Amino acid sequence: MWRLFNSRSLLVTALSLSASLSSPNIVRSMSSSLSTDTMRSPPAAKKVEHRMEIFGDVRVDNYYWLRDDSRTSPEVLSYLQQENAYTDSVLSGTKQFEDQLFKEIRGRIKEEDISVPYRQGPYYYYTRNLEGKEYLQHCRRLIPNHDMTPCSVHDTMPTGPDDPPEHVILDENIKAQEHGFYSIQAFKVSPNHKLVAYAEDTKGDEIYTVHVIDVEIGAPVGKPLTSVTSDVEWANDDTLVYITMDEILRPDKVWLHKLGTDQSSDICLYHEKDDTFSIDLQKSESHEFLFVGSENKITRFIFFIDASKPEDGLKVLTPHVAGIASWAKHRGNHFFIIRRSEEFFNSELLACPVDDVSVTMPLIPHRDRIKIQDVCLFANHLAVYERENGLPKVIAYHLPGVDEPLTRLEDGRAIDFIDPVYTVDPAQSEFNSSILRFSYSSLRTPDSVYDYDMNTGTFVVKKIETVLGGFDASEKNLVNIDGSDPLLLYGYGSYEVCIDPWFKASRLSLLDRGFIFAIAHIRGGGEMGRQWYENGKYLKKMNTFTDFIACAEYLIEQRLLFAGVPFVDALTTMLDPTIPLTTSEWEEWGDPRKEEFYHYMKAYSPVDNIKAQNYPHILVTAGLHDPRVMYSEPAKFVAKLRENKTDNNMLLLKCEFGAGHSSKSGKVMFSALS
Q: Which residue ranges does the record assign to the Peptidase S9A N-terminal domain (predicted)?
C-alpha cells in the first residue's frame, strides 16, 4: 500500500571505522590501497560562483555548475570520469579483495533457480533464472484439469515429461543484450491470457516503454507506448490503462489505450493539475475494477473504473478532502476502504456498496496502538496486515457470502511466525481461493514464500531461498561487545517506511569477517505507527538524525564505536520545483520557500554545514540517471567537502554511468552492489 516510487532516499549508515581497522584483512586492504605507487591527486572541481538569496540569507554554491539535467555536458561528464578514475586508483590495492568479495557474493547465489509458481486462470506463471545469466525468463505452464483442481497449500506445479510443457513468454537476457541497463517493472497478462504488456526501462531513469506481445509467439502487437510510468493495467482483452508524467517526472495523467490505435489518439481519463499530488493505478483482486489514486503525503482520494466498460471513464469513490487518505479494494457488491485521517491516524477499515459509495460501514475501527498497514481481499476472506508495538502481524477473517449482509467481521485468526522479529509482506494470491500467500524473512531466515489456508490455519513453506557457501541458519556465533568488533548501524527514517529485520545473503561477507549488523528504528519511519512517522517530518525532521545518534551513543556506551556518514544537498534541491519529485516532497520535508522551513532545513542540510574540520573516510556513490537523487547532489557534496576538509582521510566518489537509483541492473550485480 505504501508506495516508494516518489521518494528520495534518506539512508543513514554508521560504520565503526576505528574498530573495523582492527580486522587484519581490512587493515591490509586499506594499507595497500593507499600505497604511493597507485595514488594520484584528487580531482579539483573548478569553482563558479552561484549566489542564492532568500529571506535575506545568502548562500554561495561554487559547484552548482555540476548539475546538467541532460547528462550530456562534456565538462560535467569529464569531471565525473576523473572522480571515477581517482577512486579506481586509490582502491587499486583492494582490487584482489574486491574480486574475492564479488566471488563470495556470487558464490552464495543459486543461479539456476525458479520462483514459486502462482495460479492465474488456467495457468501457472513464474520466472526462471539461468546459470550465468543476469536476467529473468518469464514462463508459464497449463494447469492440468484446471476446472477440477482447486487451489491448495499443497498445490505443486507438475513438471514431468507427460505434463504440459513450459512456455517461455519473454527472456529478459535477450532483450538486455542491446542495453547497458535493463529492467522490467511490470508484466501484466491480459484477461484472456493471450497477450502480455510489460514496462521496460533501458537507462535507469524510471521512464518506461510499454510493449504488448502475443504470448504464444512473442510477436509485438501494435506500437509501444513511450514515456510512461510502470503503472499499466488491462481493463479488458484489448484495452490498457496507463499513466504518463509531466516534465518533473510527476505521474499526472491517466490514459485509455485501445490496441491497434496510435498512442496520440489515446483518451485522457484524468489530469491531476496540482503539482504536489501524484497519481497511481491498481487493479482490484477481483479484476472487476481499476482504482486511480491521487495523493500527496497526507491526502489521498480515489476514482474507480469499471473494467468491463472503461470507456465510461472515472467515477469518484472517495472525495478529495485535505488530511484524509484512502485506499480501495473490491469484492462482490462492496468496496473495502482503508481510511486514515488526523483523528484516525492508524487507519480504519470501512465497506460501502458499489452502487452507493456514500454509505459506509465500519469493519475494523481505528486503534491508537495498532496500525492497519494493508489488506488483501478474497472471494470469501480478508487478510489484514497490521503493526503493533513495532512488529508486523497478519490477521485472517472469514467473510459472509457475497449476497449476505456485510455488517461486521467475525473474530480473526492471527498467523504465528517462527522468529521473534521478522519481515512479512503480501505476495500474489488467487482471489477465488482460501490460500493467502506471503513472503517472509528475518535476520537468520532467508527470503521465503508461504501459503496459508485461511479456512484451516494450515501453512506450508513453498520456497526458502537457497544460500550457497555453507550458510547455516542455526549457527550462533557470539560477538565481542568490547569494541573490538566493527559495527554497521543501518537506518532509514523517512516516508513512513518500516525497516523490519530482513535477510541479505551479501551481508554474510561482513558477518564472516566479524562485523556486527544493527538496525536503528528511528522516527520518520513507520515502525511504531503513524505518529512515529509524523514525529520525524516537517519541523520535527531533526528527530530522525538525533534518534540515529542516540542509537549510536547507546552502542558507544556498550563499547561499540561508531562514525557517521552524512546526507546530501537537501535545501537547494527542495527550493527548486523544476527538479523531479521536489513538489511532491514538500508534504514530507516542508517547503523551504517558507522562512520557517528554510532555516530549519538549512540547519541539517549537509552541504550547507560543511566546514573546515576533520572528516572520516567517506565513499559516496551515485547513478548518473537516478531520477530521485540527482547525481549532481553527491558530486557537489564531494567537491565542497574536498575543498574544506582538513584531514588526509579518503574521500571518494563513484558515479555509475549505466545506473539509476538502484545501482546496476541484473540479479548478481544488484545483489553485489546493493
A: 43-462
Q: Are strands 516-519 and 487-491 parallel, antiparallel or unpaired?
A: parallel
pLDDT tens, position by position, 303-330: 999 999 999 999 999 999 999 999 999 9
Long-range contacts of 164-167 (CB under 8 A, 24+ apart): 165/141, 166/139, 166/140, 166/141, 167/139, 167/140, 167/141, 167/215, 167/216
Paired strand residues for 305: 290
pLDDT in tens, 237-260: 999 999 999 999 999 999 999 999
Give the integer Cα–Cα distance in Å for 336 and 325: 14
Judge whether 349 and 384 are in contact, CB under 8 Å. Answer: yes
How far apart CA 264 and CA 266 sit, in angstroms, is 6
Nine-digit cell string for 438: 506471503
CA dihedral 506, 663, 18, 491 (to 10 degrees): -80
In the numeric block, which cell numbers belong to residue 280?
497511481
Tell me if 137 sits within 8 A of 125, measured CB to CB: no
Asked if residues 341 and 316 have their Cβ atoms less than 8 Å apart, the reply is no
Q: How far apart are CA 481 and CA 641, in angstroms?
A: 33
- How many of the other CB atoms lie within 10 Å of CB of 57? 11
SS3 assignment, position 300: strand
Please report how many Cα atoms fall inside a 13 Å half-sphere around the Cα of residue 541, on the Cβ side: 24
Q: Does residue 335 sit in helix, strand or coil?
A: strand
Distance CA 670, CA 176 (A): 15
H or E segment and range at residue 487: strand 487-491
CA dist list (Å): 509 to 104, 142, 512, 513:
7, 41, 5, 7
User: What count of Cα atoms within 13 Å lies in the side-chain half-sphere of residue 394?
Assistant: 28
**Exposure letters 8-41 (e unless 16+ CB within 10 A, then b):** bbbebebbbbebbeebeebeebbebbeeeeeeee
For residue 544, the surrounding DSSP H or E stretch is helix 542-557
Residues 6+ apart with CB under 8 A from 206: 5, 229, 230, 249, 627, 660, 661
- Burial class from Cβ neighbours inside 10 Å (0-12, 13-18, 19+) for residue 614 reads exposed
Length of the chain in terms of residues written = 674
Look-up: residue for cell 514431468?
160
Question: What's the angle, vertex CA 623, arms to CA 618 and CA 628, rounded to 5?
Answer: 105
Q: What is the CA radius of gyration of the chain?
A: 26
Q: Mean per-residue pLDDT for 272-279?
A: 96
**CB-based contacts of 580, cutoff 8 Å, min separation 6:** 248, 249, 250, 627, 628, 630
CA 525 to chain CA centroid, Å, is 14
Note the pLDDT tens digit of each residue in 527-538.
999 999 999 999
Burial of 213 (0-12, 13-18, 19+ CB in 10 A): middle
Tens digit of each residue's pLDDT (9 = 90 or more) over 624-665: 988 888 899 999 999 999 999 999 999 999 999 887 766 566
Helix (H, G, I), strand (E, B) or coil at 272: coil
Residues 6+ apart with CB under 8 A from 245: 207, 227, 228, 229, 251, 252
State the angle between helix axes of 542-557 and 595-604 in degrees (0 to 180), rounded to the nearest 10: 30
All three cell numbers of 203: 537507462
CA dist 21 and 485 (Å) reads 9
